[in-house]
Amino acid sequence: QLSEEYGPVFTVHLGSDPVVVLYGHDVVKEALVDRADEFAARGHMPVGDRANNGLGIIFSNNEPWLQVRRFSLTTLRNFGMGKRSIEERIQEESEYLLEEINKTKGASFDPTFMLGCAVSNVICSIVFGKRYDYNDKKFLALMNNMNNIFEITNSYWGQLYQMFPNILYYLPGPHNKIFSEFDALKAFVAEEVKLHEASLDPNSPQDFIDCFLSKMQEEKDRPNSSFYMKNLITSAFDLFIAGTETTSTTIRYGLLLLLKYPKIQEKVQEEIDHVVGRSRKPCVADRPQMPYTDAVVHE
């Protein structure tokens, strides 16, 4: 409605912050594709700015962000961490997820928790080099910390903080609990980093933390390096929290859509049975032979 009155580019104010809104394919493409470099920076998010203090991957900008992001992408893409690929880690975790689903014995259930655990464990395997049992107390505490962060951030108080951070920073209220949850998660990551420091073999990195520690050693004499301890802890934390919530939510809604469209679900199952069968796990190599399933996943 606003675009009908003001056109495809207009400004609104969220609290004291002016926000430029792009409406429609053409202007979005111009900004994010044709002029991607000019629009690559992330806007300020007061909760993230306070929690991460300009470090890490999610809430940082400019050259330090570019260095850490490039390193993280290269590390994950090449996966120079041990012998196991990301695909193998996902396949392994899918077995544990199926075990949990089978425990329901065909009864109705909410998959939110177990999907979160499964996706989080894949991230843990990549970042920390290990997975956790779904009943592990430390793991459950981590999941609880993460859920609280999203819940409080999306609450009335959390949104007020996003709009009026300079005022709410000094006021008591539920919004302050967000930052204690952030601190608890980072304390866990810091503990893992200490364990990795003690066992690090630069010639045989086993996970993301090992690779980052090795990079820190390489650049220890470089004065403006972005690779130092606080940035490692924040970057590992970012991978854990961002990778878990987004992916598990996407999978959950994929399941909801399959429930809504049972005929499409049947066609997907037929293609899986025809190409993969019931005696082995699906793999990325199956994708070219499964165009219907691939299309459903992407949609």
Automatic annotation (TrEMBL):
Gene3D superfamilies according to UniProt: Cytochrome P450
Location of this chain's protein in the cell: Endoplasmic reticulum membrane; Microsome membrane
Main location as per UniProt: endoplasmic reticulum
Keyword Endoplasmic reticulum tagged: yes
Keywords: Endoplasmic reticulum, Heme, Iron, Membrane, Metal-binding, Microsome, Monooxygenase, Oxidoreductase
Entry's Gene Ontology molecular function annotations: arachidonate epoxygenase activity; heme binding; iron ion binding; oxidoreductase activity, acting on paired donors, with incorporation or reduction of molecular oxygen, reduced flavin or flavoprotein as one donor, and incorporation of one atom of oxygen
Enzyme Commission number: 1.14.14.1
GO CC terms: endoplasmic reticulum membrane
Listed GO biological process terms: epoxygenase P450 pathway; xenobiotic metabolic process
Membrane topology: Peripheral membrane protein
Taxonomy, superkingdom: Eukaryota
Cofactor(s) this protein cannot do without: heme
Keyword Cytoplasm: no
Pfam family, one: p450
Family from the record: Belongs to the cytochrome P450 family.
Protein name: unspecific monooxygenase
UniProt gene name: Cyp2c8_1
